[in-house]
């Protein structure tokens, strides 16, 4: 009897194999650098006629570019820009990204508006307490201030900030603006092993049959927790520790563990 194979069956038999399916590209093995080719400043306050031209190297071309978190495109020239700081991101054919560092600044040539800022580090684990204080000079007072994508305010300070990078825009009464990038550092939170973390770990994680010495790692003492601090932080953070069947940690307990680890997992 003559056998007849349909094209669909032949495709199934000889088509895609596991070796044909590529896994995700490891972006840690590549580096993309974004450079400014040219900047044309805006001609006056309240005008949007500035431009930034960029290029990228590294990774695998072609590249796409985004300004201030906007949509990616093939364009390397960003036009119709007003005064301010602009963050440029490049993405290559493998989906890996690189950023322009520092951000590009479009200025107003004839504006005397200037500003400085001082920061206070965030040293509170549960309630962020970092802050930024701005001092503006020049231009035409009074000034208003904006943090990130927020709204303008007459108050020259921002409080209750987590550690991280922030962009501040200062605007005078003529509509001229000036931008700053500032980093709020992370301070030591003072979370204590003996007063806070030990009870959380021993009560919830180093329990009978689970990490109390009968199962690796042993989390019944500080040396075992210190040796596995990043694992403890990761697993309590993603909810896989404590084990199933036990009460979940509260958000505050999880945050305290992370702070203690980030403080250096001290025996304090």
TrEMBL record:
Entry superkingdom: Bacteria
Write the signal peptide boundaries: 1-22
InterPro entries assigned to the protein according to its UniProt record, in alphabetical order: SprB_repeat (IPR025667)
**Gene3D superfamilies xref list:** 2.60.40.740
Alphabetically ordered keywords of this record: Signal
Q: Which Pfam families match?
A: SprB
Q: What is this protein called?
A: Cytochrome c
Q: Which organism does this sequence originate in?
A: Chryseotalea sanaruensis
């Amino acid at each position: 009897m003559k056998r007849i194979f349909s094209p669909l069956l032949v495709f199934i038999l000889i088509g895609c194999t596991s070796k044909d399916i590529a896994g995700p590209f490891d972006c840690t093995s590549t580096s993309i650098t974004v450079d400014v080719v040219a900047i044309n400043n805006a001609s006056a306050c309240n005008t949007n006629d500035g431009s930034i031209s960029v290029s990228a190297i590294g990774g695998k071309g072609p590249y796409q570019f985004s300004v201030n978190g906007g949509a990616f495109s093939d364009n390397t020239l960003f036009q119709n820009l007003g005064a301010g700081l602009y963050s440029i991101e490049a993405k290559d054919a493998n989906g890996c990204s690189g950023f322009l560092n520092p951000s590009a600044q479009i200025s107003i040539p004839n504006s005397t508006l200037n500003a400085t800022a001082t920061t206070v580090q965030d040293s509170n684990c549960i309630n962020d307490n970092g802050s930024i204080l701005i001092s503006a000079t020049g231009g035409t007072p009074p000034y208003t201030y904006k943090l990130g994508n927020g709204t303008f305010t007459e108050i020259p300070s921002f409080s209750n900030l987590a550690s991280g990078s922030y962009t501040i825009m200062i605007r005078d009464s003529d509509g001229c603006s000036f931008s700053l990038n500032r980093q709020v550092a992370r301070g030591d939170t003072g979370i204590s092993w003996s007063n806070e973390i030990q009870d959380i770990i021993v009560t919830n994680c180093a329990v009978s049959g689970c990490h109390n010495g009968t199962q690796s790692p042993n989390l019944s003492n500080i040396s075992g927790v210190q040796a596995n601090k990043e694992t403890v932080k990761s697993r309590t953070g993603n909810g896989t520790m404590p084990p199933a069947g036990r009460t979940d940690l509260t958000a505050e307990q999880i945050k305290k563990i992370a702070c203690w680890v980030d403080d250096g997992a001290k025996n304090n």
